[in-house]
Design a protein that fits this description.
Length: 261
């Protein structure tokens, strides 16, 4: 049986992480039918609340749940680096890695459709807010406007085939494409610390020849408890700067190329 490694980067998500873990546990039988064993790892980014305590409680009760704790706060980029490192260490060819925000705004129920896309040939499958049938609930209008603008800007600057949603953190990755990115970029794969790391990972995977696909999903921001940790204007400006920098400086890496960044 293949493995689906689920990684949930968290910082102060005590109010949300338990409900999210339970939703993943609710998908265990569906995943077994597809031939996958569920393994959930909460990546606690040195939270100051009870996130780690809650995750540890689930880990003691359920053999498929684990806790990985950062000794110092490393932001989302650090969570992404830890997730990929754990995936490469514990996974194998044929395994999949699912990543999503730890704030309970993403529903695991879309994972089966995403897996089917991966098995059909995609190296990275994105839960997209910009596919027919997608919906966004509970997001402030100013954030919706910025997200829509970002979508257009990224498509113009980066132009990754089959991608409409460059920033959503809910994705499934194949082991092979993460291994290839690690071989090409090494420690330089994910350099960004903030939320822009999702766009950085996507574009760098494209440069090593990744095939992308998307499935529509419903973003339930109304399910999140607690204040948002995203600094909207700062994140938008940082992301735009990074998009331009990546487009101007990254070389194309394809199947038969071995280059260094």
């Amino acid at each position: 049986m293949k493995n689906l490694f689920v990684y949930l980067p968290c910082y102060n998500e005590e109010e949300n992480i338990g409900a999210l873990i339970e939703k993943w546990l609710g998908q265990e039988e569906n995943l077994k039918e597809l031939g996958y064993k569920l393994i959930v790892t909460v990546i606690d980014d040195k939270s100051t609340d009870g996130t780690g305590v809650t995750a540890e409680r689930y880990a003691k009760e359920y053999p498929c749940v684990f806790l990985f704790t950062h000794k110092k706060n490393r932001n989302l980029g650090g969570g992404l680096r830890s997730a990929f490192a754990l995936f490469l260490r514990n996974g194998k060819e044929g395994d999949l890695c699912a990543l999503m925000d730890g704030d309970n705004t993403h529903d695991p129920k879309y994972c089966c459709d995403m897996i089917k896309k991966a098995e059909a040939g995609a190296d990275c499958v994105i839960a997209s807010r910009y596919r027919p049938g997608a919906e966004v609930i509970g997001v402030p209008k100013n954030r919706l406007f910025l997200s829509d603008c970002a979508k257009l800007v990224y498509k113009i600057i980066l132009g990754v085939k089959n991608v409409n949603d460059y920033t959503c953190g809910y994705r499934i990755y194949k082991y092979g494409i993460i291994k290839k990115a690690d071989e090409v970029y090494g420690e330089g794969f994910i350099k960004t610390k903030n939320f822009s790391c999702m766009m950085e990972a996507l574009y760098k995977l494209d440069r090593v020849g990744a095939v992308f696909d998307e499935v529509p999903f419903v973003l339930r921001y109304d399910m999140k408890k607690g204040a948002s940790k995203i600094k909207i204007i700062r994140t938008a400006s940082d992301s735009l700067y990074l998009a331009v920098k990546l487009r101007l400086t990254l070389k194309k890496y394809r199947e038969n190329e071995n280059g260094k960044e």
